[in-house]
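Friendly challenge for the regulars: who can give me the structure tokens for this chain first? No prize, just bragging rights.
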Amino acid sequence: MLENISFANPGFFWLLLLLPLATLWYFFKRNEQSASLKISSITGFSKTSFLPKLRPLLFIFRLLALASIIVAMARPQTEDISTRTKTTKGVDIVMAIDVSSSMLARDLKPNRLSALKEVAADFIRKRPNDRIGLVAYAGEAYTKTPITSDKSIVLNSLREITYGQLNDGTAIGMGLATSVNRLKESKAISKIIILLTDGVNNSGFIEPQTAADLATEYGIKSYTIGLGTNGNALSPIAYNADGSFRYGMRQVEIDEKLLQEIADATGGKYFRATDNEKLEAIYDEINKLEKTEIEEFKYYKYEEKFRPWVLLAGVLLLMEWLFRNTLFRSFI
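First reply, four minutes later:
Bragging rights claimed.
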């Protein structure tokens, strides 16, 4: 009866301390409650009744009834809590992903592009209240997914990103400008671009500095990530006869100065990811830096459960009255 029950007036339970006192009072005063007759011998009484031995049941019924009334006064009730969340300050995010051939380098496991997709997918799942879009770029850029709140669409699009969908090269300016174009009409409180590359700007007709100025004009913050180990990395260097890549060691070249300038100009931050763990830590840090404000409303529904206890007390008192005026009538 008390499972999942809370009490609105638990202070009434202090009254339960009266029950031991009442028990002590009954124990010491029980003989005074009955008439007595002193006789020299009970030899002439051939049969005695067992009912006097059950007489304390009357007091037990009354004690239990009092305990039930105290529980009822404490107002037992069940509590049903429902919540509703509302995004008060959302974040619109565009992830600009380099898909040039160098992203197949194997200094990250199994390669840079696969490692990025795995970490980016986890980042997307951690942003359930934000809108996210995807831009892919190499020698040119295109919008893979416009900003949307449907994370299943974004995750499916992320899985579909592969090398070979664009002309090779690294058009950082094009990737950044395309991302700005996706966000410039956004009404979100915070608009950010996460731009990742593993090379230097060598393609496209929009300069990275120009794209950064556009981002600043539209109030878009850019977090830039340079991806690749320090030194040399096992990278595609040529094609085999069957069209597959031939791998060899190649110097890792990342224009960190440019990426730092883009981040500084837009109020963002530059990061360098040299391995899988560092890449994951960077996305975790961005996730913490860009918080979405959520307002939570809680609704409480209470259902009173004191009635069964009142009913129990009534039944106990009724039983006490019936026994007192029937079975135990002649003994009182």
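Residues 6-23+49-81+299-331 form one domain. Residues 261 and 327 are 98 Å apart (CA to CA). Your move, everyone else.
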